[in-house]
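Technical note accompanying the year-one report. For the benefit of new consortium partners, we illustrate the data format agreed upon in the data management plan: each record pairs a sequence with a structure-token string. No post-processing was applied to the example shown here.
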Amino acid sequence: MKELALKYGCNPNQKPSRIFMIEGELPLEVLNGRPGYINFLDALNSWQLVRELKAATGLPSAASFKHVSPAGAAVGLPLSDTLRRIYFVDDIEGEMSPIACAYARARGADRMSSYGDFVALSDTCDAMTATLLKREVSDGVIAPGYTPEALEILRAKRKGTYNVIQIDPDYRPEPIERKQVFGITFEQGRNEIDLNDPALFANIPTQNKTFTDEARRDLVIALITLKYTQSNSVCYVKDGQAIGIGAGQQSRIHCTRLAGNKADIWWLRQHPKVMALPFVPGIRRADRDNTIDVYISEDHDDVLCDGTWQQFFTERPEVLTMEEKKAWIAQNTKVALGSDAFFPFGDNIERAHKSGVEYIAQAGGSVRDDHVIATCDKYGIAMAFTGVRLFHH
């Protein structure tokens, strides 16, 4: 198939719309549903991310995309009992497959942002992963293959309209890429930089020069995630998964704050008070996610006031106080942070430190590198200057 007609472009008024190959055939097949323009943008960007994560780590990988940026990305490390509970997969019996673990991590890190996402899997989708996909609100999935059982499960999702795309894992695009803006064609070489190159960690200007193997892995995950995130962007990673992504901000400190706040929410969801919330039986997954998000926030009274809490809980929970939240966040450690360009000021490091960051990889090259380095040294943070910028637009 050389081209595929779409219902419309980014918006219903943008017609006609299609995807096509100038030469050769499309390296993908729609197995179910009718993906749209934005679905394909998410699918093709997320597929590149998980393919690169798998190549760099050797582990099955998954990503959850919304509006052409990842809401979550992860490799298939086993889940602790705590993570199984906060990702709401603790009802799955037996050991979860690596690709199912990767998906649960990618989808569970920022459940608010992942609502209605497009999913990418680096490996064949098995029945367990399809079962997890089926119960989430999602637009579609792209993978190199599907088991017959998985395909049957996914074809039954959304009354048979769920988008399922299979991509040729051996497909490699041309080295030059092009796009049009306002009738003008832009052309550039594809960003093929190898982010698993040990040379990226050769320039360590901080007093602490120690990166554990896990820290290097997490920093590589952060950098690969940023490569496919709308700039400006930063990414917090812990234990093989992104826990906070700040995308598309004009100011880098705003990226760092946004991603840091998401990382804090991820950590706060593991607080005993949050894990013990007495939800009413049968509460919808989206309502539960929204309620947790509000409960953790400063607007907790919106779900705890009389006449409202009864909609969500069997009994009124205690408030998670600001003091309790600060004390809990202070226990988060060994977080890795990647940035798609240099940090211009030490305020980014100050904010990152509050969310448990101990390892940083960033481009370097700011006129205030000395201030950034001094702030890292203040907290014993190990930072590498990669010399690589990863803008993505």
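Partners are asked to follow this layout when depositing records. The radius of gyration is 21 Å.
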